[in-house]
Amino acid sequence: MPAPSFALTDRTALVTGAGGVIGRAIAEGLAASGAAVAVVDVTEDGARETVEAIEAEGGRAVAIGADVTDAASVADAVARTESELGALTDAVNCAGIAGGAPAEELSVEDWDQMIAINLTGVFLCAQAEARVMLPRERGAIVNIASMSGTISNKGLTQAHYNTSKAGVAHLTKALAAEWATRGIRVNSISPGYVETPMTTREEVTPEMRRMFEDDTPLGRLAVGSEIAGPAVFLLSDAASYCTGANLLVDGGFTVW
Ligand code: NAD
Question: For a Cys-Cys bond, which of 70, 109, 121, 179 suits 184, CB 3.0-4.6 Å?
């Protein structure tokens, strides 16, 4: 038997939130595995550093500004990806926001914004991506959820965030079921705590951070690149029988 293939040679991928920490690591990981990558973030400027990092390693990438809550903007991003890099074969929907407030005080505006970006945004992106993939019966999509969609984080009051991420994991299963026989696999990754602005924001005190580390069997937060490997795997031919899966990449957090 030949070695399983994790290569993404001759693939064209789109990564949202790719100006952020996890999205950038994933975009760089896909490019290092052979894919040409559309680096999408809310502004084109926000995507540029990731493109420069990919090009510095000899990869091919383009920076695209798009708001994942706006269907027309997402459709434009897909069209630009195809015209500048080639037919879209792979996508990672990673854009997201965090936030916190006790549930009894959480405003409906904050709730709506969280759902619009973290859940509706993933739906709009997957829909636009599938619209070009389905006629070719070829594609793989990975949605970035969170372990917060499986557990509720001790010490954090973020009912809206947790709910949005549970939605992403279940949306992934629904899309996987609809598109399985039409050539598209859809999976989600649920990271645990990762070193990014989301976990270094003000409301995460040093005591809370220590608690995150203590509650994680591996004893530390992840770095962004530790989410890239699982994304490469799920997009690659090595994962040809994976669809509808929610891969927890959490240093063991959810085993306790
Ligand atoms: P980050 O803030 O570094 O990156 C998020 C990116 O999403 C930013 O570049 C931001 O500009 C972009 N974005 C926000 N709203 C957007 C919009 N409307 N349209 C387009 N882009 C938009 O944060 P990160 O930690 O790298 O988060 C990436 C993903 O990983 C998020 O979905 C997050 O929920 C998820 N996640 C993070 C952690 C963690 O511990 N950091 C854990 C689990 C899941």
Answer: 179
The ligand 1 atom nearest the CA atom of 194: 40
Distance CA 193, CA 190 (A): 10
The residues carrying an active-site annotation are: 161
**Segment 118-121 long-range contacts (CB within 8 Å, at least 24 positions apart):** 118/161, 118/164, 118/165, 118/167, 118/168, 119/164, 119/167, 119/168, 119/171, 120/69, 121/16, 121/68, 121/69, 121/93, 121/95, 121/96
Which residues lie with the beta carbon below 6 Å from any ligand 1 atom? 16-17, 19-23, 41-42, 46, 67-69, 94-97, 117, 121, 144, 146, 191, 193-194, 196-199
pLDDT in tens, 206-242: 999 999 999 999 999 999 999 999 999 999 999 999 9
Q: Which candidate, 36, 32, 39, 38, places its Cα nearest to that of 6?
A: 32
Q: Write the pLDDT tens digit of every residue in 43-99.
A: 999 999 999 999 999 999 999 999 999 999 999 999 999 999 999 999 999 999 999
pTM of the model: 0.98
